Amino acid sequence: MNSNNSLEERVSYIEGYLGLSATQPALTKVERIISLVILILAVIAIYLGVGPVNHYYQVIFALLCIALAYHRGWILGGWTILGCLTGFVNVVFVSLVLKVFLGAGVARPLSWVKVPTLSSENVEGVGKYIPQISMKWEALGISDFSLDLTIIQTFVLLFTLIGGLFGFQPFASFTALFLLILSFPMLISFNWEWVLAGFILGAVALYLQGGKQIKLKTYSSK
Fold first, then answer.
1. Are 129 and 118 in contact (CB under 8 A)?
2. How many CB atoms lie within 10 A of CB 98?
3. Is residue 117 within 8 Å of residue 140, measured between CB atoms?
4. Terminal CA-to-CA distance of the chain, rounded, Å?
5. What is the spatial distance between Cα 199 and Cα 203, in angstroms, rounded to a whole number?
6. pLDDT tens string 108-167
7. Distance in angstroms (rounded) separating the CA atoms of residues 191 and 205
């Protein structure tokens, strides 16, 4: 290493020698405000598209995702009023996004199982000599069987992510298809014009929160 190198180059040399990355994130107050405004617009748009959160799993996973993003430095925060408010809106946005994948709710697949029954009605007057018989459909006990599809979607999503993480592509593709089938009745009920607008605005807001990462050159030990 040349002794005339600048301090920045010397620090880069040391970090490169130790195998460390050299990044300098920067996020101005103006960028924070702009990202917060865009994020609020994204929340409004996606709320108009999918409606309110309908399961606590969505909030839990949103908290975990945002906490991981802050911990890994993918988005930049701070213990200021603006930073805490942005973090809260981030959780709300991700919760609404997760409703697309984890919001099928409770289904009763056997609600159609019913049996016909005959019933008679008592009437007054001359009509009492004529039997008043009507047929009704009554549900059986099995008709009340229900499935919490949100829990099933959660496990299928986890299996999909694990399969993709470890390179089990056929397994990940199968579970992703299964997740799409489970979510299909719910997906067609969304207003996708608002959902897509919310996705785009949210992506822009999260990109701005990522700040500017200035990568310094690293030098080998030779």
1. no
2. 23
3. no
4. 8
5. 6
6. 766 767 777 766 666 666 556 666 677 777 777 777 777 777 788 888 878 877 877 777
7. 21
How large is the C-alpha radius of gyration of the chain? 28
User: Could you give the CA distance from residue 92 to residue 159 in angstroms, rounded to a whole number?
Assistant: 24
User: What's the rounded Cα separation, in Å, for the pair 186 and 204?
Assistant: 26
Is residue 183 within 8 Å of 23, Cβ to Cβ?
no
Residues 6 or more apart in contact with residue 36 via CB below 8 angstroms: 82, 85, 86, 89, 205
User: What is the token pair recorded at 177?
Assistant: 């298809």
Question: Mean pLDDT across the stretch 167-185?
Answer: 78
**What residue type is assigned to position 103 of the chain?**
G
What is the identity of the amino acid at 57? Y
Read off the pLDDT of each residue in 33-56 and give the average, rounded to a whole number. 92
Instruction: Report the C-alpha gap between 97 and 99 in whole angstroms.
Output: 5
Is the pLDDT assigned to residue 56 strictly greater than 70?
yes
pLDDT at res. 120: 66
In what helix (H) or strand (E) does residue 2 lie, and over which residues does it extend? none
- The runs of H, that is alpha helices, within 23-131 are 29-50, 56-72, 81-102
- The label of the residue with tokens 């990568």 reads 215
What is the C-alpha separation between 132 and 121, in angstroms, rounded? 5
Q: Indicate the SS3 state at residue 211.
A: coil
221 has pLDDT over 70: no
d(CA 92, CA 65): 12
CA–CA distance, 214 with 12 (Å, rounded to integer)? 12
